[in-house]
Amino acid sequence: MLSSPGGNPHHPSTVAELGEFGLIRELTSRLDTTPSVHLGPGDDAAVVAAPDRRVVATTDILLEGRHFRRDWSTAYDVGRKAAAQNLADVAAMGAVPTALLLGLVVPAELPVNWPTELMDGIRDEARVAAAAVVGGDVTRGDVITVAITALGDLRDKAAVTRSGARAGDVVAVTGWLGWSAAGHAVLSRGFRSPRAFVEAHRRPEPPYHAGPAAAGLGATAMTDVSDGLIADLGHIAVASRVRIDVRSRQLDVPLQMSDIGQAVGVDPLQWVLTGGEDHAIVATFPRDRKLPARWRVIGEVLPPTGTPQVTVDGAPWDRAGGWDHFGPDQD
Ligand SMILES: Nc1ncnc2c1ncn2[C@@H]1O[C@H](COP(=O)(O)OP(=O)(O)OP(=O)(O)O)[C@@H](O)[C@H]1O
Ligand SMILES: Cc1ncc(C[n+]2csc(CCOP(=O)(O)O)c2C)c(N)n1
Ligand SMILES: [Mg+2]
Ligand SMILES: [Mg+2]
Ligand SMILES: [Mg+2]
């Protein structure tokens, strides 16, 4: 269909009135560039520097209703979050993010300011990590879908995988744990405060710099916490063929989080242990390593003893370890 078939072509208010190429123009006009970008949006593909001849590449999808709700989060928030979850995956490999690509599905009747504000959010979060949006695609569909691909540069360091943890290592974390889940619990019950938790749910703040820093400190394994600490440490434990024991007394449960837990009848430790979407970075390090203050040691790596491979205070965690899109609680 041609663009602007109805409505006012001079002040298009919906995506359909603006048309595909008008929307692309609106989106790309908001972007900035960085020294890593040799060629940005506008051609068949972008050209991004890859100084050490390896490219870190990752992709994650956000779907309306499943990952965000328009009555809980602004388009700008969704953009920040969509970029953050991908930038965090790059950082969790020990790499520095360089570029993002945005795959966007929107309904025709969506007001134009939704995708443009989304793009502002993606651009601003990319800026936090010194990366840039270099391209993407738009198409029409019933459910808003935001699919971002991120690229990163290892800067001559080895990638920190999920498979390098060794018995005797310590487990350490930096960033937030359980804040997004507490915010989600608040929003689900129809509240909008306490703000700090609701904001953490809307806009996670992954410690991007900590990923490459951990690689430099000799991290043996690393991941970001997207699904929940127990679930994500489970991936390290399985890939590394080890057991990981988390010591719950080393985990920070802020007073305000305990208050929310009390109000909604949830043990706040459950949010800290199994809440995803904060994108904290958790890594294993050789025991003798002196870690900067922002890393908190929360457990240790042990020889394998069968299942479960992640324990809390030496005991199995008999509830879900985190989010599973196809798990028993999902429909
Ligand atoms: N559809 C797919 N095709 C190919 N590889 C996939 C697909 N889905 C996941 N993977 C790969 O499986 C691995 C684990 O994926 P997963 O999405 O759980 O990790 P993540 O992105 O770190 O976590 P999250 O999605 O919770 O943020 C990644 O290496 C990912 O690239
Ligand atoms: C409306 C709404 N309902 C539920 C949630 C909670 N949630 C969705 S996906 C996910 C884990 C990470 O997903 P992925 O593995 O796809 O990155 C979590 C904790 C939300 N954010 N918004
Ligand atoms: Mg993923
Ligand atoms: Mg990840
Ligand atoms: Mg996941």
From TrEMBL:
Keywords for the protein's UniProt record, in alphabetical order: ATP-binding, Kinase, Magnesium, Metal-binding, Nucleotide-binding, Thiamine biosynthesis, Transferase
EC main group: transferase
Residues that hold ATP according to the record: G136, D137, R162, S226
Enzyme Commission number(s) from the entry: 2.7.4.16
CDD domains membership: ThiL
Binding residues for substrate: H67, E277, W323
Binding site for Mg(2+) 1: T59, D60, D137
Binding annotation for Mg(2+) 5: D227
Pathway: Cofactor biosynthesis; thiamine diphosphate biosynthesis; thiamine diphosphate from thiamine phosphate: step 1/1
Membrane-traversing stretches: none
Reactions it catalyzes: thiamine phosphate + ATP = thiamine diphosphate + ADP
Binding site for Mg(2+) 4: D44, T58, D89
One MF annotation (Gene Ontology) recorded for this entry: thiamine-phosphate kinase activity
Note: Reaction mechanism of ThiL seems to utilize a direct, inline transfer of the gamma-phosphate of ATP to TMP rather than a phosphorylated enzyme intermediate.
Family: Belongs to the thiamine-monophosphate kinase family.
Protein name: Thiamine-monophosphate kinase
Species name: Streptomyces hazeniae
